[in-house]
Amino acid sequence: MNKYGSQKPHIRFRTPEQLQGYLERAGNAEFNFRAYPISGSPETFHYSGEEKVVTRENDRKSFDNLEDFTCYTFQCDAEGYSHTEYVDFELLN
């Protein structure tokens, strides 16, 4: 069991670009995942590779593009600078 109480492995992304590249390389895959920021609460998302859209599960908010999603996840400021050191990513299915 990992520090999040899950048996599933996590991938640690240290930059928004790393996370965005991972999602871009997923091709047309569809999957659910949980993002654990270094501060704040984890959130669950759905990724549609065919549409290149990430949707937040709790309120069904879709992000306009992958850059907006990764900036949200890394708590970027208005200039795009990340306010967190890393985000842990857990693939749920």
From TrEMBL:
According to UniProt, the name of this protein is Uncharacterized protein
